[in-house]
Design goal:
eight-stranded parallel sheet; 4 helices; mainly beta; 2 domains; 16-stranded parallel sheet
């Protein structure tokens, strides 16, 4: 009769490891915590770790401008150079944020080589963040920004001034553009969109912005032929032949909310021209030649009542207590 060897049963490896002192990597649970989470009937079975496929994600990069000139300076990065790199990255699916070195605060970049062209037509988004401290000027010689079809661009905290072009003195947009917390002033276009021209098939979102002292044949502040949304903004003291502040033409779609369009001048539609979609709480001056305003809007005001600059430099929209004064200034 053969003797049987004594079999020593060892606990599974995961059980032995669970008796070790817990080692944390970041906030990963230790093995005892994993064991406690096992469903009934799984005790004693080896752990199986399974990988999970993640969705594709865009790589983010940052470009820091430290050259205030529109020319190349060794070992420094100009805004034009940063945009050229961002265009390449956007086409490769990389989203760049262009920011400005603190040493450039309160300075103006004056363009000497034509408008800055954003033409990165890919999955990446190009963001230019001026931090509320930077200005870019066309020096009354050139447009400031052009956004090509297919490009996705966001501009924030920037002053865009003294642009001069056939269309879109400040910005000529044919892509998808968002402008926030920015000022466009002193820009001029021969034909349309002194401040911004939004072409047919393009998308423009304007939020918390001021457009003032711009001029064009159509749409001194903004000329829209695509899809436009304006929120919490002021469009004032612009001029043109049609739609001194804002013109919505050629079947464009223009939505306004909590926005002032007043004190502009034009032969037709001094403040606004075209059909609009109002989401309410807008203050609009002369509305002849326009439609779409609702009861929550204040219309027919020659200029914003009791308008005072806010923290961002924008005119303050009258509140409910200002209504009587605003109505007294109607034509």
């Amino acid at each position: 009769m053969k003797s049987r060897k004594k079999v020593v049963r060892r606990a599974p490896r995961y059980a032995r490891l669970s008796r070790l002192e817990s080692l944390e990597v970041g906030r990963s649970p230790n093995f005892e915590q994993l064991e406690a989470r096992r469903p009934p009937g799984m005790i004693g079975r080896p752990l199986r770790l399974r990988g999970q496929r993640l969705e594709s994600r865009l790589v983010l990069a940052n470009l820091l401008v430290d050259n205030p000139l529109d020319t190349v300076v060794a070992s420094e990065l100009s805004l034009r150079q940063a945009i050229a790199q961002a265009n390449l990255d956007a086409a490769a699916g990389i989203s760049d944020t262009i920011a400005f070195d603190a040493s450039l605060a309160s300075q103006t970049i004056t363009l000497t080589q034509g408008p800055l062209e954003l033409n990165g037509t890919g999955a990446g988004t190009i963001t230019i963040d001026g931090g509320g401290q930077m200005a870019v000027s066309g020096n009354s010689q050139t447009g400031v920004f052009t956004v090509d079809s297919g490009a996705q661009v966001s501009i924030a905290g920037l002053t865009i001034e003294d642009g001069n072009s056939t269309s879109g003195g400040g910005i000529d947009n044919e892509g998808t553009l968002t402008v926030t917390n920015s000022t466009l002033s002193g820009n001029e276009a021969v034909d349309e969109g002194g401040g911004i021209y939004n072409a047919s098939g393009s998308s423009l979102t304007v939020s918390n912005c001021t457009l003032a002292d711009n001029s064009a044949e159509d749409g001194g502040g903004i000329d829209n032929e695509g899809t436009l949304t304006v929120t919490n903004s002021t469009i004032a003291n612009n001029s043109g032949s049609q739609g001194g502040g804002l013109a919505n033409l050629l079947n464009g779609s223009a939505t306004l909310n909590n926005t002032i369009v007043a004190a502009n001048t034009a032969v037709t539609g001094p403040d606004v021209s075209g059909a609009f979609i109002s989401q309410g709480n807008n203050l609009t001056g002369a509305t002849d030649g326009s439609s779409g305003w609702v009861g929550a809007d204040l219309t027919g005001t020659r200029r914003p009542a009791r308008s005072t600059p806010g923290a961002s430099g924008q005119l303050r929209r009258p509140d409910a207590n200002d209504g009587a004064v605003a109505r007294e200034s109607r034509y």
